[in-house]
Every structure is written in structure tokens, then in C-alpha cells.
Amino acid sequence: MLESFAFAYMQRATVAGVLVGALCAIIGVYVVLKGLAFIGAGIAHASFGGVAIGVLLGINPIWSAIVFCILTAWGIGLTSRRSYVKEDTAVGVFFASTMALGILLIGLKQGYQVDLFSYLFGSILAVTTQDVWTTVVITCVVLTTVLVLYKDLLFITFDSEMAEVTGVPAGRLYFLLITMMALTVVMSIKVVGIVLVSALIVTPAAAAYQLTEKFRNLMILAVAFGVGSCVVGLMLSDLLGIASGATIVLLSTVIFFLCAAISPQRRRSRPVTEEK
Amino acid sequence: MINGNDPLIEIENVTILHNGLKVLDSVSLTVSRGEFTAIVGPNGSGKSTLVKAVLGLIKPDCGKIRVFGVPVDQLHGQRSRIGYVPQIFNIDLNFPISVLETVLMGTYGRIGVGKRPKTEDKAAAMAALEKVGIADLKDRPLARLSGGQRQRVFIARALADQPELLVLDEPTTGVDMTTTGNLYSLLRELKNDGVTIVLVSHDVGVVASYIDTIACLNVSLVAHCRPDEEVCSRALTDMYGSHAAYFHHSDTPHIVVEEHPDA
Question: Residue B255: which of B237, B263, A265, B238 has the closest Cα?
Fold first, then answer.
């Protein structure tokens, strides 16, 4: 029934799905625990501006999106850390303006709208060999970073202030984290699309959070859910002839609600800190 | 003697502004090595701000702070000589982490970025847990502790790297009397081991017998004195607009602030 997996495009799609599912889940753990979901959504929307710049300049939109998203992430980080405005306000400002820039730039390129839809909503079947290799490299970089800095990233996620007091460079690690987030967002665009990326980052980690009180298990479960959603979602969409990005995201949402229902702690998606 | 000849913390004319308002107004304060200082003052008196400035978390708009004789923004590797117990409600208490993992974080600054904790670091974390009396809870998730147990975890974390300076910001908030009592005897022990202690408290129900000096803060430094000095109780009375008095029962005198009936 899944004879389409014999085709090269389907194999590329599967590899991309596995890598992006894992990447999103790993970054998602930090996003859920540190409360960065809105920054993730902001960076995702900024990637539209990045893609538009690439289209206009005639270069691979992935590269322009990487540069643009990292700069936007740093912009949000700097604006909020210097406490000019609150973090969510900073995101709100960058969110719409970078998207507007994208729309403006795309409008300059006359008669261009072919790929637009695929960037917004994903087109996993259109993943090229070059895309797959880019994703492999980025996944390896992020995975190595997370493994090497495991304890330090855990520390700043749990208690950034204490990390700073003891001499751990919390600021630099925070910027590294949002840089990895920007890379993850761009790698996910082809798979689920700009509009749905933030769901693929947050949902698997939020689902895993329902089931465990151990950080390591949280990582492993989140990756399993992320990869599972991507692969099974891809199969389902192929089988039923429905949109792949949306299928993947909805599948991970179903997993989230199942986990929430069987959660031994009956915790919500993000804990509210106990009063006082 | 308040200004000893071996200063560990030197705060010189520190002014800190927040939205144009003075949170701290030219505060100068010296804490000597081995001294136990309590910083007291009402809510909004700038106690936490002062402590954060000493820890290098907030940069003063004016003035200088030196810790271990080094300007605080140049402490770098020496930061691991400081233990810090932050206010507990700044922390996500449902974070998926065990007691031992939390305490181990106290050693991360010294271990360095990108390096793994070794067996001796874990042993140090265990020793700190034993010191606060909850070694048996080492594998318990942080989310499954009582308020008092959690407080001990954060104290153990501050002690894990055997700090020379221990800074505690409101450590008794939301903690029962027994834990508070245990905390104070632990602090006395640490003081006897030569640890310099700075304790921030918004209520003055502080056990006074082993505190060396009290710094009464209300945006500016109102008084810096020994707890049994006349000037001290006067400062407390001024600050709180109420009667501050000592109760000497058993061997642990308390400073108690009583609300004015007409206040």
C-alpha cells in the first residue's frame, strides 16, 4: 500500500521528515521549558521575509532565510534582554514587520507565486537532495551542540540567574539557543511550512512533558513523538491524498491530547509556577 | 567593629535607578570576611536589588562594588566562590529535574562550559545534600517536594561548591518554622566554618544571636550596626514605623517588629 516509498522523492521526504521531527522536538524541549514558544512563532514568520529576499535576489531561499531568521532571533533577544520592552512585545514587533517585508518583496517579483504556497504550508514531497543534505548538516550541528552543552543548556533553561551568578555565560548560551531555534525553523519550512513550524516545535515536547519528570526522558520521548508524527503523517497524507504538513501537525496534536489524557501528573502544557 | 580589616564585599556609593526612580541611593557598605550580615528593610527598600548588584546581575548606575577585592564584573572564574540562594518564586517548580541534578548545578560554574561533572563533583553534591539533611531524597523529582524540602535543595545547591560567600535572598519565605529553625542552625555552623554570609530578609523576625551586623536598608542605608546596639533598634523602629523589640527567650533572641495599633 505504500509503494510510493519506492520513489526517490518519497525517500527524500522521509529522511527530511525524520531529521526535522527530531530537530524540532529537541529544540522544542527548551522552548516548552523556558517559555519561548512565542519567539519560535515570531522567528517562523520572519522566515517569510528571509525567503522573499532569496527569491528576489535569485539565490536559494533557504540561505537567505537562515541569515534573516538568525538576525531576527538576535534582534528579539537583544531588544528583550536590554529590557527596552517585554519579550512578547519584542516578538510582536518583529513578527508582523518581517512578514510585511516578505509580502512587500514578493510583490516586487512580478507574477511570482508558484513556490509561495509551498513555503507557507510546506511541501515535503518537493524536498530536493540538496535540502536533505543541508538538513543533515544542520541536524548534526544542533545535535552535537546540545550533547556537548547538555548540562549548561539545562542550567540556563532551569535557572538562568543562578547560572550567571556561578559564572556560566547564560547570555551567550541563550543566544546560542535562539540561533539553533532559527536554524530549526528554516529547516522545517519545506516539511510543514512557515505557518505550522511552531506547532511542530512545541507540540511533541509538550506531549512528552505530560508523561515524565526526568529531563533526559523528556528529550527521548519528544524526539520519538516528533519523528513519529512526521513519518506517520507523511504516510497518511500519501495514502489519503491530503496535505502533508497539516497532517503531521494534526497528528502531533492528537498525540499531545492522548498524553494529556493519560498523564499521571495531570499537568497542563506549561506549568504555572506555584504562588510565592 | 563593623569595618573589619579584611573586607570581602565593598560597596561604594552605589546608586541604581529603575525607570528614573532611585531604587538604591548612594549605598556604601562593607562586609568583612567571616562576618554574618543581615540586610533588612521593608518591601521595595532595594534589598534584592543590592544583592543582585553584588552578584553582578545588575550593573549600578553609579558607584563601585568589589567582591574578594575584585570589581564584580571582572570576577569571572572566582564566581564559583559565591553561593547564592535566590528567591524561590523565580523558579519553575515543575521543571523535570531531580534533587541531585539540581544540587549538582552548584558545581557547573567551576566545572566549565561543555565539560561533564565528575565523580567528585557528584560526591560534593551528595555531601551538600547530607549537610541539609535530605540525602535520602536525591532521586526525587523537584516537583514532588514540600516547600521546606525544596528550600533545602536550593541551599544545598549553593553549598555544593563550598562557597566562601553565601548570599541568601529571603530564604524563609513560605517555609515552616522547623525549616526556618534548621536553616538558622545550619547558617551558624557555616559561619563557624568561616563562611561569610549575607542574608536578606523583609521581616525582622531574624534570629539575632549569631548575626554580626544588621544593615537597615530603605533605598539608602539607614544604619549598619550590631544587633544589640541602640542605634539598630531605633533604625528598625524608624523604618517600619512600628515597635521593634528583642525577645530574649531561651538562647535564641528574636527581633520582633510589632505593628503600631494606630498605624
Answer: B237
